[in-house]
Each structure stands twice: as C-alpha cells, then as structure tokens.
C-alpha cells in the first residue's frame, strides 16, 4: 500500500538534496573564479608555467649553427670492404636513397649559392657497370659553355692506393645530371665542378662523386685528395 505522505516527503528530501548540491557547486565555482582573479592581479595578469624539462634520455635540440658544421677533426669510417678517413669539416648526412652508402655535405665557399655534395655508391659484386662506362656517364652530365666536348676537357687519371686500383676524373662546366635517376627533369647548374673516383675492390667497384660550385670544390679539393689517398682495405 502506498503512503502519500511518505512519498511526498521523499520527493521533498530529494529536491532539497539537489538544491544543496547545486548551491555547493555554484559556491565552489565562485571561489575558484575569485582565486583566479586574485592570482592574476598579483602577477600582473600573467600566469606562470613550469620550465619544460626534456624527458630522460631525450636529445637536446642542437643549434642551427652546430648542426651545419662538420667534425673539427678527421675520423675513420668503414665502407664495406674499405676504410676511409673523413676530413675535418665534412658534414655526414643520412643517405637520401638506398643506392647511396654514405653522403656528405661540404660547406660552401663564400659567395657560392650551395654546398658541395659527396655521395658514395655501391651496387654489389659485378654490378654498377664498368669503370669506363661510369666515367663516361659522369662526363656526359656536364656541358661546356662554348659547346666543346666535355670528354676533351675532363682530366682522367689512374693510380693505385693501398693495393686498390683507383680511377679519378676532374671536370668543370654546366652540371646537367637528372634530378633523380631516370627522371626527365635535369639540373642546369652553370659553374659547377666534379671530382670523382672509382675504387676497384674484390667485392666490386665503389663510386665516390663530389659535385658543387667551382669555388666550393676548389676549397675542398685538397681534402678530397686526402680522402681518396686514405682508402685502404678494411
């Protein structure tokens, strides 16, 4: 049997509870707002935040200047079957394609628009074509301003370094290599120079190609000589 009086009392009690909770919530919000206003007044309207702390083991962000400079001393590096000494000042970079086994930026000379870039290629035993075919292909990536033959202007030499046959080429002109292997778009960089070397190892040839503005390559030509002459079996 229902008791109207008891039910009515329950409803009234529930309404009182709701009203009490609502009033407490309004009072709480008002107190928070008051504290926030008082805090802003004390700090001139600015809120303080804790200084950011890097997570344990997280690398700190290097300055752009530090990131753009290479090592201050030469360093030995192993490249498959050979070791080389990377000259001071060269900036090692992550290879931008799977065909590149190593990649270095050589900071530009004053007045030049870009850095030099040295790329190391290796395609495996018996792969990559003959030494002569690669030298001819590299020479074909340059045009001469006067229309003469780049092959006639190229300086090709052979030597032996630590028991390994090395073929070198030195050529200047307008650099017109494809932007990407097989791509129709090509560079059109006048006043460029290439220093390159093919090192014949028992595991197949390794290719070293340095290209950049002439002044920049002239700046680093001595370092490139040291780099090639440092090659030895690993």
Spell out the key features of this protein.
globular; 11 strands; disordered N terminus; eight-stranded antiparallel sheet; three-stranded antiparallel sheet; 2 domains; Protein Transport Mog1p, Chain A; 234 residues; alpha+beta
**What structural category arises from helix and sheet content?**
alpha+beta
Number of domains: 2
**Share of β-strand residues:** 25-35%
Report the end-to-end length measured between terminal Cα atoms.
99 Å
Low-confidence stretches: 1-28, 34-68
- CATH architecture label of the largest domain: 3-Layer(aba) Sandwich
User: Total strand count, please?
Assistant: 11
| Spatial shape | globular
**Share of helix, binned:** 25-40%
Mean pLDDT over the full residue set: 79
């Amino acid at each position: 049997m229902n008791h109207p009086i008891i039910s009515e009392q329950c409803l009234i009690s529930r309404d009182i509870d709701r009203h009490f909770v609502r009033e407490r919530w309004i009072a709480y919000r008002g107190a928070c707002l008051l504290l926030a206003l008082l805090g802003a007044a004390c700090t001139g309207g600015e809120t303080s935040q804790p200084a950011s702390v890097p997570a344990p083991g997280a690398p700190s962000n290097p300055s752009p200047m530090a990131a753009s400079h290479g090592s201050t001393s030469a360093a030995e590096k192993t490249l498959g079957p050979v070791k080389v000494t990377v000259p001071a000042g060269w900036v090692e970079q992550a290879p931008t394609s799977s065909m590149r086994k190593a990649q270095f930026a050589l900071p530009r000379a004053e007045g030049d628009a870009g850095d030099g870039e040295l790329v190391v290629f290796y395609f495996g035993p018996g792969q990559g074509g003959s030494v002569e075919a690669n030298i001819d292909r590299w020479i074909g990536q340059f045009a001469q301003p006067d229309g003469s033959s780049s092959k006639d202007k190229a300086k090709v030499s052979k030597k032996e370094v630590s028991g390994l046959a090395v073929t070198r080429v030195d050529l200047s002109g307008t650099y017109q290599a494809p932007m990407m292997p097989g791509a129709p778009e090509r560079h059109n960089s006048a006043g460029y120079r290439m220093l390159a070397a093919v090192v014949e190892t028992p595991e197949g040839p390794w290719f070293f190609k340095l290209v950049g503005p002439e002044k920049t390559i002239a700046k680093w030509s001595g370092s490139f000589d040291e780099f090639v002459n440092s090659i030895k079996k690993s």
